[in-house]
Amino acid sequence: MPRDASIKKVLVIGSGPIIIGQAAEFDYAGTQACRALREEGISVVLINSNPATIMTDTEIADRVYIEPLNVEFAERVIARERPDGILPTLGGQTGLNLATQLAEAGIVDKYGARLLGTPLKSIRKAEDRHEFRELMREIGEPVPESWIVEEESQLDEPLKSGIWPLIVRPAYTLGGTGGGIAYNEAELREITRRGLSLSMHHQVMIERYLAGWKEVEYEVMRDANDTAITVCNMENFDPMGVHTGDSIVIAPSQTLSDKEYQMLRTASLKIIRALGIEGGCNVQLSLSPHSFDYYVIEVNPRVSRSSALASKATGYPIARVAAKIAVGLHLEEIDNAVTRKTLACFEPALDYCVVKIPRWPFDKFNVADRRISTQMKATGEVMAIDRAFEPALHKAIRSLEVGIYGLQSKASSKMSDVEIEEAIRIPNDERLWAITEALRRGVMVEEIHSLSAIDPWFLRKLKGMVELETEIKSQSSAILAASEAEETPPADVVSLLTRAKRAGFPDRSLSDLTGAVELQIRKLRKRLGIVPVYKIVDTCAAEFEAETPYFYSCYDSENEQ
Amino acid sequence: MKALLALEDGTIFEGQSLGAPGRTYGEVVFNTGMTGYQEILTDPSYAGQIVSLTYPLIGNYGINADDFESRRVQVEGFVVREAADIPSNWRSERSLHAFLKDRRIVGIQGIDTRALTRALRVKGVMMGAISTEETPEQLVARIRSAPAYGGTDLNRQVTAERAYHWPPYTKQLGDIAAAEQRALELPALDQVPRVALLDCGVKYNIVRSLSALGCEVTVYPCTASADEILSRNPDGIMLSPGPGDPATLGYVVDTVKRLIGKKPIMGVCLGNQILGYAFGSKTYKLKFGHRGSNHPVKDLNTGKVYITSQNHGYAVDPDGLKDGMEVAHLNLNDGTVEGLKHKELPIFSIQYHPEASPGPTDSSYMFETFVRTLTAN
Amino acid sequence: MNSAPGHRKDSVLSETRKKIVVIGSGPIRIGQGIEFDYCSVHCVWALREAGYDAIIVNNNPETVSTDFDTSDRLFFEPLTSEDVLNILDREEPEGVIVQFGGQTAINLARPLHEMGIRIFGSSYDSIDLAEDRDRFEKVLSELGIPKPAGRAVTNAEAAVTVASEIGYPVLVRPSYVLGGRAMEIVFAEEDLRRYMQYAVDVSPKAPILVDKYVLGKEVEVDVISDGVDCLLPGIMEHIERAGVHSGDSMAVYPPQSLSQDVIDQIVDSATRLARRLEVRGLMNIQFVVDNATNTAQVLEVNPRASRTVPYLSKITGIPMVRVATHVMLGKTLKEQGYVSGLHPNTGSISVKAPVFSFAKLAKVDIGLGPEMKSTGEIMGMDTQYSKALYKAMVASGIDVPTRGSMIATLADADKQEGAGVIRQFSDFGFDVYATGGTARYLKTVGIDAIEVKKLHEGEGNIVDLIKSGKIDLLINTLSSDKRIEREGTQIRRASVEAGVPCLTSLDTAQALLLALAARRGGEDFALATVDEYLAGTVN
Fold this sequence. Notes:
heterotrimer, A: about 550 residues, alpha+beta, Rossmann fold, Dna Ligase, domain 1, D-amino Acid Aminotransferase, Chain A, domain 1, five-stranded parallel β-sheet, C: about 550 residues, alpha/beta, 4 domains
């Protein structure tokens, strides 16, 4: 179906200021959407209170309003501009909440506009816990035992169930504000009280906390023709209990067999279809590490932080495609902007590994509670791409700019064994380095797994990295000598350096481990030809030629620049 | 241990041995699926081929007892960038390396698989060889003196030795000898739809899918005659996928021609190509084939688009189709034929894999369509 | 098809075009937000417009700069010198631009310079001159530009000596800071000693700066200089007095309370500094206007684009990053049609306000001070100051009704000034609740305050009241008394949990009054596009 010709002018609602849970991803999404709409000849009106955004540039939108994102000012913009459509799903929760309020107040209808893309009733079904559970029950998708609570007196039922621990999630909040995990009645009451006060609808959901289960996300898209695809799946390094915005995330999933991958993919597509979403959607699922059992945890019926990550991880521009779908186009009518030979109607195939690490503000707030849980605390995130997990993790670590360049942090190296154990057991910003420190001290992978429930696959990767670190240290004098000499070092040193670089060790870590000067290591590497090549992110694992010059480095053989 | 992969054009990749040491030879192809290596390894359609996976981290979830698509490993050789030493998954029973070694499959890891993919994309699939024993020169010479893919009848190698029987609602067959025995002894059940499956290299999941829909399936070797297949009066006939060049399978085409009009027929992958031949068309070789879990296909009748699992190196030429056979599905990436449907007779086929395994299960409805046809007749 | 400036349809790198690498700003964090991504993207656009191939390096997946069609080449890589040098080895560009990626990018100036890489815009030496405190102080004294008295010290005794020389209160901070980390205003020797112990612990090698805390307005400017001419697109005046980090202050364009004389001083100092530092491109300067002497004293300079650049660009219509990028490529301001000095005011009044994420961060004290705490910012635009203030307040989440209930708890030092502010809220019709001391004080000056129990005084106390949902606003000024502050922290946290706006600066409260007055006035707020504000066609 070609695009809806009745749509000539569209209002795009931005997400406002950067806050925890809503960072730059909505400028990225909004900018893409504006461009996608203008490609279709549509005039774009934009409202956002945050002018430090590309979307609010007059190069991106036709008419830009820097106004508060509330009903009063949005109504005035609508009254003045008379847009044919309003695109609510690209401005994060802020934009979606405002669009919902405008529609509910009759303002959208009053001025002859309509909401584009995902219908409001789909959004409600996805966001209202009760309606969502009902829908999941109808389509036979499992959801954890849960109770909707609107006042404290309703806690009797969950208390009677005897299920512990329980997780409390407030409805309609950003980044899970006000949620938490309760292990006993007192905690349950306290977290519920806080959650109720912070929820826009004075509603929280209490549900079975799936301790130790895998957390997996699917980014899915659907058009009005009911074509539905998966853009990307992602596996959290941290098991259930840590907000996905505060989790280290790996794309694609690493520990799921095809049966598990497809089972969850099928569930995700079933859900996006049942909801009737037209655009992008994020489905969070929890998978048992011991069986095919899974639960559907949550759905975000809009572009999100996860979709920005998925877009960058795959090269698939989710927001652009969502905007095109919103004005009536079908996935098979939208081109793949990366290959320009294929269509948006396909599922990206990755031939690399992506690691995301959250960036927490604890360097600013010494007194802050550094534990991470269901309430997001990160202000931002970094992503890294490489051909394997180890170098991608290494790159992500040194992208954080927290004074840590590799597997060792000052804080964790100073911790006692008991403190290390605690830092592994209870998720916090230091956990990754507490794990590497524990491995360094000889703690077994099995023990770390039993403390953290982190999948042994990840832990064994970390163990391998620590072992390589030990090997480098044991060869430090040889590497130091090689870095100072002119002649070619022995083959085992060359091989060790190659392996170290393939595992992502930065020169700076090699310098720390061996005492060699960082720049001397660089010179040595270059002399030996141990230099990175650059490969293209092309959405299709090289099956088709890509037009887009989106590169990542790796210590592999063929350079594609 | 060092290992080499050489291509027909003289390109050499140096890596480490994976699985068994030794030498192997086959058509080098790539698959872009990110999961499903066990299913790929055991898919008979990969007979005669060295399979390279574009996803770099393989073996993470190990090898389990359930995800076999046939009794044996079918690939000639296996190429990955990195094989996991220690897998992690609740069903995992052993590592990829140990499994391949046990099954005497020669593989290679540690090479730039993306560079390999790009080479195959540009030049098309080529013959190649993996070796832990030969020099690059010896390897290339060996490739050049060996027969090309399609020159041997791979289907006879992978097909069932004897007919066997797969009961309804059965996920795993268990003892194949007992099943063969049952195929001869058991009376045909009247209550359930009965499918005769012509096995040119069937994946178990096709049989499982039919079984899960309540069908009783009898699997026949690809050399079975039409009379043999019709002898138990099946309600419908399934033409399986399989390896090789369909142009060389005249005897199967002849068998199928004799079945047309007698029973509903569904063809999958090679089965689609066989039906193409049976209805006057030909096939041609694709430059580097379609192998992966992400191919968009449009159903021309409904206008719906599905993401499909694919594994084929040949495509049906739509021009020669006659006697009421029409193109029903198209690949949205390159416009090639992905399915056929007869205007009047209950005959249809698809080039992709509704049985998934590996890959998306979006097209499993195809089996339902087929089974509905059986019960309607 | 694409209307973005400099957008080319062909994505294949040209053989003939020269390449320039733009260093991005990495993850969003407090002190380094989305503003730098905005700058990086505009720099890329300007480079393409000027006929260069723009290459971007960044690692933040949330941004426009890492969209695959923003630049000619995107390298999704860490921003360490090793990773950047690897790219430069392969690409062999003309050079790199480090002015737009915040502190992340500017920190790479030195290692890249040392490897012989050309830095476009201000040279490495010029950057160092601005960032090295000793060198910079010499420049200031050479130019005769005033700065608050102070010195760098390396131990507690020296700190105490300096402080007693210049007099308390003093502003102390590590010499190398980003976003005001570990910065404090210290009122007494005892606190200074405690701070020194703590601060020296934080960074043992770096010296600590002890500066006179100057009471007055803070002002900041961004200048674009080509080495000869120096353009000041606009001045932003902070609404909170000095002591609140610039990133946490509300700020207004154009300045509302500065005399022409002070504005002249600012323009003069900025121009001479830009020339002396040989700035090519952007520089940000922060001043404090000393109330006592009416002099604009330099607090610090940042030899790079600052977080106000996108705001001033939109307000003034001067595409600051684009102009600066063209300057770096060799096109003078004159050639671009700009003249030296302060750009004339545009028709709008714009107020920038910080936004905090305290609800997400348990145990963090929300009181404002020299350490930056906000995660983002917004802006309110109108034709009148009070209306722009109102919009900024609402947009930043301080959505207070024009009458309602409020709680006031004022530190002793603030009682007199605070009473004046509270009286106006009371006059508006706010019910005023206050704890013991504040309530008594307010009563003595004739404000009818309702006394509420302190936290430790049992049920029905101030925190219970905050949580009751009856309160619309909390004004709680920070005390230097640690005992009182412990309770203050709990009260402020309670307001966060309950979603009640909490102001810790009387200046913010005064601004809120002005905003509420605009609301009560019943007049319509302006509604205009950014372009209409610039064209002066606002109805």
